[in-house]
Amino acid sequence: MTEIGPVELLRRRVDDDPSRPLVTFYDDGTGERVELSARTFDNWVAKTANLLVDGLGAQPGDRAVLMLPAHWQTAVWLMACWSAGVVAEPVPMPGSEPPGAGPEAEPAARSGPYILAAAGEVLDTVIDRTDAEEIVGLSLHALGGPLPDCPPGVLDYAVEVRAYGDRFAPAPSVTPDRPALTLPGRHVTKTTLSGAGVAYEAQAAAEKWGLDAGDRILVDMPFTTLDGVLCGLVAPLASGASVIIQRNVDEAAIDRRVILEHVTAVAGLSGWNDATGSVRRLL
Known about the structure:
alpha/beta, six-stranded mixed beta sheet, about 20% strand, Rv3268, ANL_N_sf, single chain, AMP-dep_synth/lig_dom, five-stranded parallel beta sheet, 13 strands, TIGR03089 family protein
């Protein structure tokens, strides 16, 4: 059987059901709600992959550190990295983890050169201590606005990405067996999966959780763990389901959101999870 990766899962989704929502995003801190169909999500992925390759000179096997919160643009960046053959390394944002709860936010310098994609809110914290070759700042603005104050040497994603095409052709060497995702671990230990490995884990998780094309999964998890990547993007792709990503969650809004969004499963929600910490089915 030919190996497939997350990129192939997205291609299947766009071919089979381009108009149905794939990713919905809520930020309860701003009142933002964004919904992207598979086609629209794919267009954002293509633009970002073109930015990586044509704008930043990324080559297959290069590394992109993603210092980003749970957000639809984080999902786009993960898939854009995989499309371009770039190894995505999501790391916690400074201050997002309690002391001693996880790894340092910055990768070790000995890991080699990398591109850093960071949320605008943490740029001032990391810009003076990063050794990234290129820094991309994301405003994460609801209406696609630029960074309010873009530091020198930082590329403003919201401004730059608009100029790139919404179709992307990967290099022939970009195949599912290449390294695709590096996840932080305790101390210096890290785990790297190939694209095929990510897709395999997603298909296994979708089967374990009983997800199918009729499901809508509400997720409150960072993309810095394998479960977060699976729940927040790849398992919905593998199963045909759609995902609702939350940030700055207002607990009082959850009950209404579950009803309005026709949620059938939840992951990472305080008080809602399965006793094992797995996805909990509601219907």
